[in-house]
């Protein structure tokens, strides 16, 4: 289960990936887990948050645009992106953002 | 149920709100629906995406930082923010971002 990512002081970068799945698993669950493991091992990775309820929203956080670019070019990730279009998603949107400001709240 | 937001060409702004709920509804569901309606009526609102699965992620999209600021100062929204801290959330993080680039995929 996802938690709130423990990111450093801004500025840093966020990739918002919003998707609608097609029916059936077709290897999606296994690949999704592998992608989270692989992303977390990339240079410049800061954290990830994810939830699906009808639509799926995954936000990954990165130190730089270069780190995002390198992750997009990762060989296993490129295979996953291809399978995403051919099998797992009906549609998706990816937004690359600069986080300019953040604030939070927590009890206890 | 949330859908992928139909946003214009970048640049525009995103507010990523990631939260962990406390137990019980305590008026949360009703207020959450009101906030979505109210936000959608604000000047500069572009769209919203939302999912909860353990963690909740709501991303709202805006034309400008001024539009985000005005929404944060909305009277009903300020009451909701207060109740969020006192009742509905164990913790949350809000990130204000500039969307620099986006791309997508859709079938048919």
TrEMBL record, chains A, B:
SUPFAM superfamilies: Dimeric alpha+beta barrel
InterPro entries: ABM_dom, Dimeric_a/b-barrel, Jasmonate_Hydroxylase-like
Span of domain ABM: 13-78
One matching Pfam family: ABM
UniProt name for this protein: ABM domain-containing protein
